[in-house]
Amino acid sequence: MIFCVEDDDAIRGLMLYTLNAAGFESKGFPDGEGLFAALRTELPELILLDIMLPGEDGISLLKRLRGQAATAAVPVIMATAKGAEYDKVTGLDLGADDYLVKPFGMMEMVSRVKAVLRRCTPRQERNSLAVNGLTIDLAEHTVTADGVRVALTLKEFELLRLFLSSPGVVFTRETLLSSVWDTEYTGETRTVDMHIRTLRQKLGGCGSMIETVRGVGYRLEGNP
Question: Per-residue pLDDT tens for 34-59?
Fold first, then answer.
């Protein structure tokens, strides 16, 4: 279950529709009062929380969430206005797991929700990831492509690890930046394109598995 706290009815409706279409259950609330009323009966997997809300704002709500034992560990993605650097940094310092900058695309929202859930959901440790001819050994930090060892830089390794962990999922350039270069990286998305190009070259024939999704980002096609 995903909770969406957004006071704009149209935006909230679109977010709920998109999340449901992506296979998530979701509920929406226009303010913090509705959110905390719902939390008394149900604990969500993740909360999408707008900062600019009527009454109590998102920063204050985040403090309350992190200050209560029942909700302290619930992942929270904050929605900030473009250029609101202070709000973004404050949210991250208070324990937000990620952020979206308005206006954001619905596909980016779904990608970030999936990425945060992957990071925050406890699961059995896996020593390797493999898709078709590509294999990453997480313990030894090695990569093979069609049985041949490939030497990658740290960022290339992390990009490939992210793709192999979720084959078929489209990652926007912004999501890749926040996941591999960390959420406060201020570089241009061209950095991602250059690393993807080099990664494809190093992987040889397997490099074609990393597909460009025009106008969105990248995904890795294949079967685990």
Answer: 999 999 888 899 999 999 898 899 89
